[in-house]
Amino acid sequence: MKILRSSEDYLEAMLMLKEEKGYIRSVDIADRLGVTKPSVSYAVKKLRENGYLTMDRSGFITLMDSGREIAERIYSRHKMLTAFFEQIGVDPETARDDACKIEHDISDTTFRALCDVVERQKSAGSTDGE
Description:
Blueprint (H helix, E strand, L loop, with lengths): L4 H17 L4 H8 L3 H13 L3 E3 L5 E3 L1 H23 L4 H11 L5 H21 L2
Antiparallel strand pairs: 1-2
Helix pairs in contact: 1-2, 1-4, 2-3, 4-5
């Protein structure tokens, strides 16, 4: 199922918040993404209706397996692309911003090829110093 880029951003932010704070709340999502609370409410409602998350009576959000899978895929792309851009000399802020733009649009084939290149460079670098 194709999911919108904005939904991927919300799910990724939720995963990051869960890792950082141990919980996910709408107010924290709004702060993280720089959006309004009504925008978060609308997005959470749609994501809940599509089975990506649940929300308890206290307002705490839990990612369902399908939501976590999408969030982890996007977040891993984000981390790898950010690290790659920094490795080639891009400043950290620009690297993060560019990774966020690319993580949604890069094909699985191209992303996997990029990962393979990075792994080969790591392997070659580790044998150079021995």
